[in-house]
């Protein structure tokens, strides 16, 4: 008798669990997309950034990747973090609008309608920690028979995006060695915190590290605080500027072990161009006119061109350039690195 009761209890529990899981699956797969060619996709919207929409469906092994400009209608019962090209950010669900080419932000006012092309970022608010995480790592190795030249390049990045802020970190390293010369090291790393303000304004705190044998830099720590603005913020490109103050702390490997501590102003321009076939381009230039050291000027420039491969692999070509018009004795005024690496991104 007792065994029969347990069996009935277990059966009821199993049926209840099946209903819960089926219900959860149905709710998770309740987002709908209509493309410009009238194809309809039902699934779970994961995110849209850099002009590419990721959708998970029951019938695919991996997420669908759809170019955002091909979307004609979108609706979803989830709550999303939505960013418009003017910098406005909302937590809202999405539904079809009365006019073609528009979407209704259900939780904004009485249901604000905006152009689909005015939306530049979508992220599920209910997403797990990992789904808000972006990461990549790439490695390159060069070997030349002449002088037995060996060079190892490592590039990595990690970022986390919350509703109104973003945290990014990067680490890059170059190790080069050949017969008849000393081993050359170059390492740079940074952590950047960005808080998104109204009207596409932003506030940043950035801490950077550089060690560079070519310029005899044992270490350079630069902490920057500034405010900026996006001049262009679309599904094709971001273009913006940031300005503020920087505190610079340096130690050099010259004969006297020079130390420098200085206050600098800084201004930067950044262009992020994406969704050009399978290519992404990111370039940034920062100028540091010194406030406490007379006539000193430093400039840092980077350019990265990335080509996307299947399965989230990529090839990246990068240029990094550093300039200082007042280097320590016997050190070079400038240094540059050209890198080609193969990697994978989360």
Automatic annotation (TrEMBL):
Pfam families: DUF481. It comes from the Bacteria. This is DUF481 domain-containing protein. The lineage of its organism: Bacteria, Pseudomonadati, Bacteroidota, Flavobacteriia, Flavobacteriales.
């Amino acid at each position: 008798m007792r065994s029969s009761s347990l069996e009935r209890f277990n059966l009821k529990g199993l049926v209840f669990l099946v209903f819960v899981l089926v219900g959860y699956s149905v709710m998770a797969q309740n987002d709908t997309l209509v493309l410009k060619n009238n194809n309809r996709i039902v699934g779970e919207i994961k995110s849209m950034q850099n002009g590419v929409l990721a959708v998970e469906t029951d019938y695919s092994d991996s997420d669908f990747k759809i170019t955002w400009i091909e979307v004609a209608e979108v609706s979803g019962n989830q709550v999303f973090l939505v960013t418009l090209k003017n910098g406005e950010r909302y937590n809202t669900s999405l539904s079809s609008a009365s006019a073609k080419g528009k979407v209704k932000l259900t939780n904004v006012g009485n249901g604000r309608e905006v152009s689909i092309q005015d939306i530049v970022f979508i992220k599920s608010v209910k997403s797990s920690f990992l789904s808000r995480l972006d990461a990549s790592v790439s490695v390159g190795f060069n070997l030349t028979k002449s002088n037995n030249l060996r060079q190892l390049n490592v590039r990595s990045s990690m970022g986390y995006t919350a509703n109104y802020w973003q945290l990014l970190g990067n680490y890059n390293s170059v190790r080069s060695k050949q017969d008849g010369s000393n081993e050359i090291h170059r390492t740079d790393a940074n952590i950047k915190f960005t808080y998104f303000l109204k009207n596409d304004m932003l506030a940043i705190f950035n801490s950077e590290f550089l060690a560079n044998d070519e310029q005899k830099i044992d270490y350079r720590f630069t902490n920057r605080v500034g405010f900026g603005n996006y001049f262009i913020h679309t599904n094709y490109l971001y273009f913006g500027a940031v300005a503020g103050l920087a505190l610079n702390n340096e130690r050099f490997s010259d004969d006297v072990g020079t130390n420098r501590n200085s206050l600098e102003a800084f201004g930067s321009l950044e262009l992020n161009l994406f969704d050009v076939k399978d290519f992404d381009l990111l370039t940034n230039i920062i100028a540091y006119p010194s406030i406490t050291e007379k006539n000193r000027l430093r400039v840092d420039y980077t350019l990265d061109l990335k080509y996307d491969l299947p399965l989230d692999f990529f090839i990246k070509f990068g240029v990094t350039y550093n300039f200082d018009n007042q280097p320590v004795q016997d050190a070079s005024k400038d240094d540059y690195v050209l890198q080609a690496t193969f990697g994978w991104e989360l």
